[in-house]
Write a structure and sequence with these properties.
It contains four helices and 13 strands. By secondary structure, it is α+β, with helices and mostly antiparallel strands. The protein folds into two domains: 62 residues; 203 residues, Distorted Sandwich (Glucose Permease (Domain IIA)). The radius of gyration is 20 Å and the shape is globular.
């Protein structure tokens, strides 16, 4: 499937999702007697079919083509962290190849000293403030000399969803709402760097108002880009990092990475990323 066709399919899918949401609002609030209720069902079927076709196309391409060679870059953070949803354990690491996430990784701060990262809560508290998490506000560093092609940090940092009730709310209610807004609402505040030679780096869930760069800026490896946040589809403040073959999240394919001096940490693996002092230009 061509890039243009994928882009068109994603657009149609998003429009159908918007129609499903509007349909539900009409049915449950107005309930007009002559309204054709089957339209909502048909739109939902269309969303499912497009999702299936996009997923099947991505799986077919992954099976029939050689996986891209890993690109070595510096770590996007410094200090002591642990990995979640790592491509060292499975690909696609987040259960989907959509939004260029095939080889994406999440990392959370695990400092030796207090305050430590709160554990997952089965019952209480349902939500926590972001400052309870040591990752919140941690510097995000450029992984290579690059050009900023996209940067936005206007979305809010919501409370954590690291409890059973919060997790269910995120993926059943909030997740559906964010999917209507497309990729930018799912990844939240984010920055995308052009590393050259057809490789792009994306940082998601950035802290609101923290970005120190804008589109068109030149950055050097180790330069501070902004801070770790909890915007978008995020259960707690963490760094979501990925490499892609293009700057458009709707059509990009994932590219494997290796962090210099670290490798690719597996799920639950604690690692220490050593890097030169961040550069502030």
């Amino acid at each position: 499937m061509s890039v243009r066709l994928r882009k068109t399919a994603v657009l149609i899918q998003r429009l159908l999702l918007l129609f499903v949401a509007a349909h539900l609002a009409v049915v449950f609030t107005v309930d007009p007697p002559s309204y054709p209720g089957w339209l909502g069902f048909a739109a939902a079927v269309g969303v499912f079919l497009i999702s299936y076709l996009l997923s099947a196309d991505a799986r077919r391409e992954a099976k029939t083509s050689e996986p891209p060679a890993p690109v070595e870059v510096a770590p996007p953070v410094t200090g002591r962290w642990s990995a979640l949803n790592s491509p060292a354990d499975k690909v696609p690491s987040h259960g989907t190849r959509g939004y260029g996430q095939a080889y994406a990784i999440d990392v959370v701060a695990e400092p030796d000293e207090e305050p430590r990262r709160p554990a997952f809560a089965w019952l209480w508290p349902v939500m926590r403030g972001n400052r309870d998490f040591p990752a919140f506000g941690a510097p995000l560093l450029a992984v290579a000399d690059a050009t900023v092609v996209h940067a936005e940090d206007g979305q809010r940092d919501h409370l954590s969803r690291n409890s059973l009730a919060g997790f269910l709310y995120l993926f059943v209610v909030e997740g559906f709402g964010r999917s209507l807004g497309g990729a930018r609402r799912i990844v939240g505040n984010h920055v995308i760097l052009d590393l050259g030679e057809g490789t792009y780096a994306a940082y998601a869930h950035v802290r609101r108002g923290s970005l120190k760069v804008r589109a068109g800026d030149k950055v050097v490896a180790g330069q501070e880009l902004g801070g770790c946040g909890n915007s978008g589809n995020s259960t707690e403040p963490h760094v979501h990092f990925q490499l892609m073959d293009g700057p458009d999240l709707d059509t990009a394919r994932g590219v494997p990475f290796i962090w210099r001096g670290v490798g690719v940490p597996a799920n639950g693996e604690v690692f220490t990323a050593a890097q030169d002092e961040p550069v502030n230009l």
